[in-house]
Design brief:
The protein is an alpha/beta fold. It contains 15 helices and 13 strands.
């Protein structure tokens, strides 16, 4: 049947039905409403009417974006880290969004990205703000089509997403260390990460040069030994150096950490020097991980081509969003490199990341950084706790599947910011 005939047929059927049932159900009016708000095949006809932002302070500032439409559907997204100045950036993106069909996510993303070629659209604040917008578009698309986001990304290959806990403790010198570790065990995590970089270590000789002394390295190894002993043998241990050391130190720590059989050693050197990262990786059996400060798939190309990391760690709330994250994971998959996203955001952004993690074959583990803020974590979305025994079960609800609890979130509003201003 031709397109025009299909439209006529559906219109005729509904109007014929309306002649006998209009008084009861108003199907004639319904027919007109359906045709005005959807395509011949039922695809919603949406237009973006407004783009709004708010900033919540949790692990730093988190940029929340809402995209509104003429049919009352609203999409929400979240960006992180490089989002200082995010609200005015998102406001500047509105001219590319208002009046457009939000289901064309890739087209809108590319239009904004390429328009900013001279405005920093390769990385940093621009891409972090764009990431929040992109995630909101996917949430909106899922709601419009009545599908969870993972389905729009190709469907899921797993129902549950494994999560590791950033422990917020690492040393017997912490008087609450055993209490915190007991809490991690009670929450059921199967993987834990600790930080070993410390610019205030009294053994440091120089506050600028990040070459660690023997005593500093001994302290790092002592933290690993303490946590390895305190955790169950089946619990994986990861270690973060935050890219704050030079090549000499990075190689020494990676080699001396080998007996602990770490899940990974994260950024023993800064990520911007891919050759240095590769040299660390080639020097050790300890798996090397990097990527939380790389942007777009372009930022990961050289890391993968040069085999500079065993595991990649994009932050989906700042590297370009969900489809970009999927593309990065797929690039890594061709090199047999696991995908372990960095994630410090609210349950909104965390569930968004989980949709990607559920959809890609090479997913390893997702970060969680809220053990020190559990009351906010458990109340900031209407659905409550989304984490169970160290796993997130990906929701089948349309879109991201979680909605902000405004009362709880607004209690953490960043000072001096507006609340979902457009």
């Amino acid at each position: 049947m031709k397109k025009g005939a299909a439209m006529t047929s559906r219109r005729s059927f509904l109007k014929r039905s309306g002649t006998t049932l209009t008084g009861v159900f108003g199907l004639g009016a319904l027919a007109e409403a359906i045709e005005g708000r959807s395509s011949p095949y039922g695809r919603p006809r949406l237009k973006i009417t407004a783009v709004r932002t708010a900033v919540v302070r949790a692990h730093g500032d988190q940029l929340h974006v809402r995209i509104e439409t003429d049919q009352g559907l609203v999409g929400q997204g979240e960006g992180t880290d490089a989002v200082v100045g995010g609200p005015p950036l998102v406001a500047s993106f509105a001219r590319f969004l208002v009046g457009q069909d939000p289901l064309n996510v890739e087209a809108l993303f590319e239009r904004i990205r390429t328009a900013g070629i001279f405005a920093g659209a390769q990385a940093g604040q621009y891409v972090a703000a764009l990431s929040a917008v992109e995630i909101a578009l996917w949430d909106l698309a899922g709601k419009a089509l009545n599908l969870p986001v993972y389905q729009l990304l190709g469907g899921k290959v797993r129902d549950r997403v494994r999560v590791y806990c950033d422990s917020q403790t690492n040393s017997p010198a912490d008087p609450k260390a055993l209490e915190k570790i007991a809490q991690i065990k009670e929450l059921g995590f199967t993987a834990v990460k600790i930080d070993v970089d410390d610019r205030n270590d009294p053994a440091r000789w120089d506050m600028v040069n990040w070459t660690a002394s023997n005593a500093e390295i001994d302290t790092m190894l002592g933290k690993m030994a303490f946590m390895r002993e305190a955790l169950d043998k089946r619990t994986d241990l990861a270690v973060d150096m935050h890219g704050r050391y030079d090549l000499t130190t990075g190689k020494r720590v990676a080699i001396e950490a080998e007996p602990f059989k770490l899940l990974f050693l994260e950024e023993p050197v800064p990520a911007e020097n891919v050759d240095a990262m590769r040299e660390v990786r080639e020097s050790t059996k300890t798996p090397i991980c990097c990527g939380e400060n790389l942007f777009l798939r372009h930022g990961f190309r050289e890391v993968l081509e040069k085999r500079a990391a065993d595991i990649i760690m994009p932050d989906l709330q700042k590297c370009g969003g969900l489809l970009e994250g999927r593309k990065i994971a797929d690039m890594a998959h061709t090199y047999y490199v696991p995908f372990a996203p960095h994630c410090v955001v609210s349950p909104i952004g965390t569930m968004a990341s989980a949709h990607v993690c559920a959809a890609v074959p090479n997913f390893l583990v997702l970060e969680w950084h809220w053990i020190g803020r559990l009351p906010l974590w458990r109340t900031i979305v209407k659905e409550g706790e989304i984490l169970e025994r160290g796993f997130i079960t990906v929701t089948d609800r349309p879109g991201l599947g979680v909605e902000m609890n405004e009362e709880a979130a607004r209690g953490a509003q960043a000072p001096g910011t507006t609340w979902f201003a457009g």
